[in-house]
Structure formats: structure tokens, C-alpha cells
Amino acid sequence: MKRFFLTALVCLAFLPSSSQAEEKVKIDDATKKSIDKALAWLKEHQDRDGKWGNPAITSFCLLAFMANGHVPNQGLYAPEVSKAVRQLLSEAQDNGYLAGRGAGNMYCHGMATLALTQVYGMTGDEEVKKVLKKAVDLILKSQNSEGGWRYDPTPTAADISVTIMQVMALRGAKDSGLHVPDSTIKNALKYIDKCHDARTGGYKYMPYSAGAGYARTAAGVCVLQLSGEYEAAQIDDAVKYLEREESDRTHFWYGHYYAAHAFHQLGGKKWEDYYTRMKDTLLSRQKSSGEWLERMEQQNGAAYQTAIAVLILSVPSDYLPIYQR
């Protein structure tokens, strides 16, 4: 656990002054019961080899357990967490690619890398570090000339969604003590800035795409905050866009995965109002057996939706270093 506290101290160095205020949002009993029921459901639906679908979904599920204090060798679900970690490590290819042996891509790689940064930051496991370093090196080598990333691990095209996933992974890697060049993050932020839509305040899929989206805007605000750009001019307009649009039905879970952490980084009343609203929504939609499965994104499956719901509800616990203020 020593590395956990070291990681937390690193995170503290990037805190905005407003984060010194006492946290008013707490996890109440009803929410705790909801989370417990969801984690029990995820345990029962984990494959024998430790995965829940592809590496990205497995990573979301792994983070959901870790966000509630369950890590390898510690916590009620330590065996499930350990199996998931071993599964992610087994997916690593010789070049560090963590997208799985099937139809994976840099979405999977980014999420798996982020999850492993949290495992390494909280445990100091040297086996995880070996895989993680190669995974981070792959991200660094795949950044294109604009500063972004796309589906394949090659420096060709870019879009904001894949780019932000890689920045999150790099931020987690840096916080856990791995070397990440400052220039890589700066160039990525330049690309993300090009995707900002000054007319609406939101973020577009690509610099020359038409129209902003909730999920992309939430991700943009989240990564600006996590990168220490607390005073970025785009944040105020982007937050207004999020409050105005409320949600994105086509990417509800993905959007709120980022929105929860974006509002948490902002803190204050905006965070309190967002969390209260999302808590009420999620608790009302949870199935009696413990999972979430909304028709609007049924193709992604219940494990994906349940993991993200747990991550949103668990933000106030502050277990995961990447999401701490």
C-alpha cells in the first residue's frame, strides 16, 4: 500500500485551490447497497479466465472493484480482481499492445493501460510494471503529427475520443511514477483544443467534424482538469454545454463515465447537483438482480453498463488515484 500513498501525494500536487473545501457529497446507505449488489453481480458474471468481454470492458469492471477498495490480495473481491489483472497481462502482445487477440483497437489498449496504471500505482507490482511500460511506450510511439491517436497503434489519423483515452492512460502512468514526456501531453492537448467548437462550447469528434457531442465534451473537460489545465478558457463554455445538453442517448454510459469525473474535478455545487441527479437516475434503473442494462446501449452488454454505473456512484470514495482531486 506504500505506493498508493505515494501516488496520492503526486496527485495532490495537481489539486486546484477549490478542492481544499470539504467534500459534501457522500455515499449514502442506499447507494452503498446498490454498489454492493452490482459488484456481487459482476463477480457472478466474470468468466473463468478473469475477463468480462474484451479488454476494455474487463478494465471498466476491474476499475469498478478497485474504486471500492478491492485490490489484489486485499478486499472481499481480491480473487476476482487478481484474475482480471492476470487476464489483462496475458493479453499483452510483444510490442505492448493490450487490445486482445480479436477485434480490439486503441480504445481497448487505452482502457487496459489506464486500469494497469491504477493497479501498479496501488500495489507496486513489478510484473504489472513490465507490461505497463511497454503499453505506455506503444502509446507514445503511436501519437500522430497533430498530437492525437486513432483506432490503430500507428501515427496516422486521430479523433478526440481515442485521443482522450490515451491521455487518461498517460496521466495515470505519470502519476504512478512512469516517465511520460511533457511534450506528449502538451501536443495531445493542442489536438483536443482543435476539436473545441467555439459556437456551442462543446467538443467535436475531429477538428473539421460537424457538431459537438455530450460524451466528447465531458471527456474534454475531464482530461483538461486531469492534465492540470484548470484555468483553460474552454472549460466554462464546455460545462455550460454539458448542463444544457444533459446527456447523449447514443453514448449515455461513455458520456457519463467522463462527466462524473469532470464534475467531480470542478467540485462545488455543480458536482453536488450532478451527483445527486445521477445517483437518483441510476438507483431507479438498476435491476433487482444488481445489474444495469439499458436498451439504448444494449449492444455493449450489462457488464459494461454495470461497471460504469458503479464507477459513477463510487466517485466520492476517492480510492482510485486517477480520479482524486
From TrEMBL:
Gene3D superfamilies: 1.50.10.20. InterPro entries: Prenyltrans, Terpenoid_cyclase/PrenylTrfase. CDD domains: ISOPREN_C2_like. Residues 1-21 form the signal peptide. One of its GO terms (molecular function) is transferase activity. It comes from the Bacteria. Residues 84-243, 248-318 form the Prenyltransferase alpha-alpha toroid domain. Transmembrane segments: none annotated. Keywords: Repeat, Signal, Transferase. This is Prenyltransferase. It comes from Limnoglobus roseus.
